[in-house]
Amino acid sequence: MPAFYVSGDSVARAVGAEEVVVALITHARGRVVPLEIKRTSSRGLYWLEPLLEVDTPQGRFGFGPLTDADVPSVLEALKGDPSSHPLALGLVEELPYLKTQQRLLFARAGITQPLHIDDYRDHGGFEGLKRAIAIGGEQTATEVFDSGLRGRGGAAFPAGIKWRTVRATEAAQKYIVCNADEGDSGTFADRMLMEGDPFLLIEGMAIAGITVGATYGYIYVRSEYPDAVAILRNALEIARSNGYLGANVGGSGLAFDMDVRVGAGAYICGEETALLDSLEGKRGVVRAKPPIPALKGLFGQPTLVHNVLTLASVPLILAKGAQFYRDYGMGRSLGTMPFQLAGNIRHGGLVERAFGLTLRELVEDYGGGTASGRPLKAAQVGGPLGAWVPPSQFDTPLDYEAFAGIGAMLGHGGVVVADDTLDMAQMARFALQFCAEESCGKCTPCRIGSTRGVEVIDRMLAAPDQGGRDEQAIILKDLCDTMQYGSLCALGGMAPFPVVSALKYFPADFGLQASEAEQ
Amino acid sequence: MPDESLHLSVVNSLLERHKGSAGALLPILHDIQERIGYIPDTAVPEIAHALNQSQAEVRGVISFYHDFRTAPPARHILRLCRAESCKSRGAEELAAQLRERLQLDDHGSSADGSISLRPVYCLGACACSPALELDGQVHARLSAERLDALLDACREDA
Ligand SMILES: Cc1cc2nc3c(=O)[nH]c(=O)nc-3n(C[C@H](O)[C@H](O)[C@H](O)COP(=O)(O)O)c2cc1C
Ligand code: SF4
Ligand code: FES
Predict the structure, then answer these.
(1) Which pLDDT tens digit goes with each residue over A179-225?
(2) Alpha carbons A318 and A129: distance in angstroms, whole number
């Protein structure tokens, strides 16, 4: 009997993967040859989950999305022509959604078993670390710099500059901190990577540690991701017992070890300085910069803070070289980005492509339009602080600078699609309400302004006439200005983006006429 | 309210376990909440003493983070995702259904003590919105019927 593959990813299980496995085991009972079921990571083709794959001489053949009730007929179909099953997908790697992707970071997604270190090694694992050890710290930092890699957490700052800064700073103790707070709604790439390929993140952090001279690291994972926490903790032990962590990392003679810490439901702890305070056991309040964390970070020591995807990009850059990585992308946005398609979308999932494809290609070609089949209204790109982009701007290439050019941002690569039934006035109100709930409280425009903003929108929506609404619209725009320019960090500073874009492109939702809203 | 002093031995053994670990307040609070179900007030002086901090500092941290509870929760904890992706797939209708069925605000515990309700902003299940978390387990691609079935199951095990 060929091997069966079902993802153990938490979201695959949230839509019934476990039930499919139980059904497989039940129906296979009494067979002479027992079934072999491997629990892999997810391919990220979430609209097809639960996805069952079976080995064939041509490659893995898929069925999905399945329920437990489909299992008997799938097993039956496998005795003859599998393509005859109504949920047959053909060879999974030939599916256009997957075949046209450029999976560098997610090369192993759906293929390997997350906690099998041999699986990881067989698929290129630890090659980056090996090369980093061979070429030494100076050259490793140069590779990262030359690759053009920019931070994937949202701010897109060049990673190599931070590496060089931390490396050059003398201190008795330095730290690597992985920002796995992934608070942005519409994003799940960090979660997929931690649950599905934990050794990749560990390898990236180990390379960072030995390169910049940090001997200890933390992964700060949001509490909403308990599976990721459990898998990482397991993976750390396995990596340690295999000599990839500890006193002599991968035979380098250099020490690096790390631990996993769990957040506690505060969005602001994704901001790096609030995160550092949280790691120190304090309230997650944003610190004024300077000093930057690279000079004075965790416990006052030089600290390299990076998003999960930034650190996980490093092994490949080392293994294949900076030039290989630079060959992907456009302008100053180099490499690939795992975009995340969410919301009202037919084919929700992970799409890793080089920067530069357009939002339209992503939403229409990959996403297949709205799940409801209704007209597309807008997409919010880059999380809760990102602007709502109307379809008229969907031809913008996914590139940091191009998005900044239309007053939007790529952020962490999340795309939330909305159909024409979503009320943008309510979404604008929500953006401000969320800001009020999650504000760290340090500065007034954010703490008070967001609450006032909710009240202004409520008054606008309740106003009996156009004049009353226009008046509130002016106040709202003023308030957004104050927040944007008077806040210490991007929570208060960017919460106006979804509000202002909603007002600009969907004035009717606020009961405004286009001309007033344009002012 | 149960006699909270009964929890002290648990609290102290957890404090012992984290001794010497830098910045351990969050892990300590998580461990206490996992073992006891919430952070009892009697734990605060013990934690403060062990970490050489003021009680006000410890209370300040507990109140800052949405996850920490200072009273026992209901038998089941249901967190409906109310963030953008889930909203675009009908999360607000599900929220209304919950309010109606449980006669509850978005934050609160049902009168029979079976369910505590809380909003959550993203569970990372956005490709399969709408989603909720029930007792640590994520359920996605929710419908009104599935939500009803989950609620029925919570009520039945009383
Ligand atoms: C309000 C706010 C929330 C943030 N949330 C996250 C987050 O969840 N994950 C993340 O990696 N970066 C987040 N960031 C960005 C971090 O502050 C920081 O730029 C990032 O961790 C640096 O890593 P990078 O260089 O790899 O991007 C957030 C920033 C702000 C202002
Ligand atoms: S903008 Fe808001 S979250 Fe950021 S520092 Fe100011 S109060 Fe804190
Ligand atoms: S927005 Fe609901 S799971 Fe992400």
Answers:
(1) 999 999 999 999 999 999 999 999 999 999 999 999 999 999 999 99
(2) 7
Q: Taking a C-beta distance cutoff of 8 angstroms, is the pair A222, A178 a contact?
A: no
Which of B80, B123, B132, B141 to mutate for ligand 3's pocket (most ligand atoms within 8 Å of CB)? Answer: B123
What is the distance in angstroms between the Cα of A198 and the nearest Cα belonging to chain B?
Answer: 17
Chain A residues touching residue B80 (CB < 8 angstroms):
none
Domain range B76-157, its CATH number among 3.40.30.10, 3.40.50.10170, 3.40.50.1370, 3.40.50.300: 3.40.30.10
The pTM score is: 0.97
Would you say the CB of residue A183 lies under 6 angstroms from ligand 1? yes
Structural class in CATH, domain A4-99 = alpha beta
Confidence of residue B1 (pLDDT cuts 50, 70, 90): low
| Residue B59 touches chain A, beta carbons under 8 Å | no
Give yes or no for B60 touching A (CB within 8 A). Answer: yes
Residue A389 has pLDDT above 90, yes or no: yes
Ligand nearest to the backbone CA of A270: 1
Q: For A228-241, what is each residue's pLDDT tens digit? A: 999 999 999 999 99
pLDDT above 60 (res A518): no
What's chain B's average pLDDT? 94
Q: How far apart are CA A502 and CA A428, in angstroms?
A: 6
- Domain chopping of chain A, boundaries: 4-99, 117-326, 339-419, 424-518
B127 to A11: CB separation less than 8 angstroms, yes or no:
yes
* Helix, strand, coil fractions of chain B, as percent rounded to 5: 50, 15, 40
Strand segments (E) across A18-70: 36-40, 52-56, 59-63
